[in-house]
Design brief:
With about 220 residues, the chain is α+β, with helices and mostly antiparallel strands. The chain has a domain of about 130 residues. Helices cover about 20% and strands about 30% of the residues. Strands 2-1-5-6-7-4-3 form a seven-stranded antiparallel sheet. A hairpin with a 6-residue loop joins strand 1 and strand 2. The mean pLDDT is about 85.
Length: about 220
């Protein structure tokens, strides 16, 4: 805790996992430290070359957006107080890493159910549905995502070879109404995310043609 009463409250980023069955919060994964950088790539969904070339400015759907970031997980400080941090003492940061890793796996129960359906001769085996993940980066940025890739570099280990420090790279694909459909509970969050962009865009003062050296457009 800071000794300065007027210091701003530090807000952490993280992921919230929502049950696909009833919409309840299954898990909140808080990033231990706010990443120093956040990369975003947006790719317009437009009519491709070879399509209707008379409509080059028409968009076929929301942009495809990918968010990438690197986070650090470090249990070094917690190991100084083993009595207060028994999970860290017993398992290091394995639980934190596993919470992220299981986002890209079907559950063991889902795999066993699919195997039982296949053994029973089922003609249709539904793919496993994961919880809806929400990426939360302040109150202004809450957006449904899919964890597309996860890279983990474990750096230090305790005497039992439990990792105690790691760097984690996450690639998150923003899920739009094109992906989810308007009837999905995540679509409302995407629309709020898009509307927030539009509201912030309206606040931008913009420039002038003189500043661009154009004078006027022909």
């Amino acid at each position: 805790m800071t000794g300065f009463p007027n210091s701003p409250k530090l807000i952490r980023a993280g992921l919230v996992l929502i049950s696909p069955d009833n919409g309840s919060v299954e898990r909140i994964i808080t990033l231990q430290y706010a990443p120093e950088t956040l990369s975003r790539q947006l790719e317009a969904q437009a009519i491709e070359d070879g399509g209707d070339r008379s409509q080059p400015l028409r968009l076929t759907g929301p942009a495809k957006e990918t968010i990438t970031l690197e986070a650090e997980i470090d249990a070094t400080d917690q190991l100084e107080f083993p009595a207060q941090n028994t999970i860290i003492t017993e398992s290091g940061i394995f639980p934190a890493l596993s919470a992220l890793e299981t986002m890209v796996y079907p559950s063991s129960a889902q795999l066993e159910r699919q195997n039982a359906q296949a053994a029973a001769g089922s003609f249709e085996i539904a793919p496993a549905e994961t919880p809806l993940a929400l990426f939360v980066w302040s109150a202004r940025r809450i957006v449904p995502v899919r964890l597309d890739s996860l890279q983990i570099t474990e750096e230090f280990f305790d005497h039992n070879l439990n990792p105690i420090r790691a760097k984690v790279s996450l690639s998150l694909r923003v899920l739009s109404v094109d992906d989810l459909g308007f009837g999905h509970r995540g679509s409302g969050l995407f629309m709020a995310y898009l509307q927030s962009k539009e509201q912030l865009s309206a606040k931008f003062a913009g420039g002038t043609l003189d500043a661009l050296g154009a004078g006027r457009l022909a």
